[in-house]
Write a structure and sequence with these properties.
This protein is an alpha+beta fold. It is built from five helices and ten strands; from the N terminus they run βααβββαααββββββ. The strands form three sheets. Strands 4-10-9-6-5 form a five-stranded antiparallel beta sheet. The protein has a three-stranded antiparallel beta sheet with strand order 1-3-2.
C-alpha cells in the first residue's frame, strides 16, 4: 500500500495482519528499549524494525539497530532518511537516500471516525470546513481520521529537518480526492510557522498522498531536494 504513494527512489516494506515473516531478533540495544513493554508493544517494535531493515537492505545499507531518538523519531544510518508507522494489523517502513529526498513521513490509521472530541483540538476551523464539504460529497470516507493521519505524516517529515515540534495548528492541510473515486488522493500542507531553509528560500508547503484500502488509511508526505 504505502509504496504506491511514494516516489520510485523510496523503498517501502510493509507487514499486514499477524505477518512477522523475516522478523529477526532485536539487537541488544533495541531489546533494552522495550524490555519492560507489554508483549503487543514489543511485537510492534520488532516487526516494524524488521520492515525497516529489509528496506535498508534494498538500499544496500547493512543491518544494524534502529533506536528511537528525540521524541521517539527513529535514528537512521548516516545518509538515509525514512519513516515508520504501525497500527492494528499493519506495520510499514520507508527509506531513501538523503541525496534523493530531504525528508519523508508515513502514517497508517484504521479507517474509522476519530473519537468524540478529538477533531476540534487537532483541526483548524478551515480544515474542519473543508472536510465537512468532502463528507457531504463522499460520505463513505472518514475524512476526520484521514486529516489526522495526514498531519502525522507531515509532522514525521518535518521533525528530522528541524528538530522542533510542529503543532496540529501549525499547518493547514487541504485534502484532495482523486476524480476517479473516493479511495485515493493527495493533500497539501501549508506551513503556518517558518519552515526550514531550502535553496532559494524556506519550505512553505509539504505535499502528500493518501489511500484507503483493507479498512486502513495510509498517508505519505515527501520533501524533495
Amino acid at each position: 500500500m504505502i509504496g504506491e504513494l511514494l516516489p520510485d527512489r523510496v523503498v517501502a516494506v510493509e507487514a499486514h495482519g499477524e505477518d512477522d515473516a523475516g522478523c529477526a531478533p532485536l539487537y541488544p540495544e533495541e531489546e533494552a528499549v522495550v524490555a519492560e513493554a507489554i508483549v503487543r508493544r514489543r511485537r510492534e517494535f520488532a516487526v516494524v524494525r524488521a520492515c525497516a531493515r529489509r528496506a535498508l537492505g534494498r538500499l544496500g545499507v547493512p543491518p544494524g539497530p534502529i533506536l528511537p531518538g528525540e521524541r521517539g523519531a527513529p535514528r537512521w544510518p548516516d545518509g538515509v532518511v525514512g519513516s515508520m508507522t504501525h497500527c492494528d494489523g499493519y506495520r510499514a517502513a520507508a527509506v531513501a537516500r538523503a541525496t534523493d529526498l530531504l525528508s519523508l513521513g508515513i502514517d497508517a490509521e484504521p479507517h474509522i471516525p476519530l473519537p468524540d472530541g478529538v477533531l476540534r483540538p487537532v483541526a483548524l476551523p478551515s480544515e474542519r470546513d473543508r472536510i465537512d464539504g468532502l463528507a457531504l460529497r463522499r460520505p463513505s470516507v472518514h475524512w476526520d481520521r484521514l486529516l489526522f493521519s495526514a498531519k502525522e505524516s507531515v509532522y514525521k517529515a518535518w521533525f528530522p529537518m528541524t528538530g522542533e515540534w510542529l503543532g496540529f495548528d501549525d499547518a493547514d492541510i487541504e485534502i484532495r480526492a482523486a476524480a476517479g473515486g473516493p479511495r485515493r488522493g493527495g493533500f497539501r500542507a501549508t506551513l503556518l510557522v517558518p519552515g526550514p531553509p531550502l535553496r532559494g528560500g524556506r519550505l512553505v508547503h509539504v505535499e502528500g498522498k493518501w489511500m484507503i484500502r483493507r479498512d486502513l488509511i495510509v498517508t505519505a508526505a515527501v520533501v524533495p531536494r
